[in-house]
Amino acid sequence: MLGALRRRWDAYKYRFVPWLALNLRRKRRTLRYVPKSSQDKIISDEDVFETLLKIFKALFINDFSRQAHILALLPDIRCKYLELLTVEQKRSKVNSCNHQSQHVFSPEEVLFNTLGFSITRDRSSLVSAGTGVFVTKGFVPKGTVVSMYPGTVYRKHEPIFFQSLGNPFIFRCIDGILIDGNDKGLSRSVYRSCSRRDQLGPFQMSDESWLTAALQNPLAVGQYVNNCSHDKAANVCYQEFDVPGYFPVELKQYLPNIVYSHDIESHLRCVVLVTLRDIKQGEELFSNYYTIVN
Q: Domain of 249?
């Protein structure tokens, strides 16, 4: 009984204001200070956009045969991807031009082939930290988008009370927007409901696979990145990114975020994790849960 209460407290205390007030001063070395909100970016939005576009296109081409129902409605886009697929086949020394005969890689292999690294969830190196995220293959240079924080996006006035109970996966953006990255319970049901609500015919507006063990977007594990400690310094940083309106509709199926309210006219808020230094194979990712904006 006491053990269960302790686990619930450990999951909740980071959102309990009195606890934060008492403990922030004691943990100055695990705080991240930002002079103002406009400076809370390690890389430019254009770099984030280009990275997501690059990996999502690679995932789309790798899964080309499953996209027929989408491409039938987008003949111009279909021609573009057929050209990209032909180039990819030549690189892979595939003699046949028939896309149905292409070798299909796992999403983790696509990530490695495209960006030069792969990541996965595994038991954290921190005692009692549970699951963590590791670079399993390759090398990640400083200033690289290495992961994404999935979940339902809530504005400040929207109901999230019941989803928040015992939920350690709620990320608060600088402007008060919340992202619920819990892949279980009520949070899971809400995300799936919103995702299917927003589907336009064959076009999926978001990725549901992060709720399962079989990820379509291998970057969508950012909610499992653990907080840094005095012994394990942060090597990645959260960066907010608003998906522009011109984001390709056929690639939205890989975005691991969905808005709670259907009538939102603003851009979809995403959060990516960007490397603060070079990260080698076998290293665990550590972020900083506390960002102070002066």
A: 43-93+103-293
Beta carbons of 43 and 239 less than 8 angstroms apart: yes
Q: Is the pLDDT of residue 95 over 60?
A: no
- 104-118 core/surface letters (b: 16 or more CB in 10 A; e: else): ebebbebbbbbbebb
C-alpha dihedral over 173, 184, 133, 42, to 10 degrees? -10
- The 10s digit of each residue's pLDDT in 254-291 is 999 999 998 767 799 999 999 999 999 999 999 987 65
**66 lies in some domain:** yes
Residue 174 lies in a domain: yes
pLDDT tens sequence across 106-137 = 999 999 999 999 999 999 999 888 999 999 99
177, part of any domain:
yes
pLDDT of res. 291: 56
Task: Let me know: does 222 contact 171? Beta carbons within 8 Å.
Answer: no
Residues 6+ apart with CB under 8 A from 4: none
Decide if 49 is inside a domain. yes
Residue 145 pairs in a beta bridge with 274
Residue whose C-alpha is closest to residue 134's, from 116, 152, 121 = 121
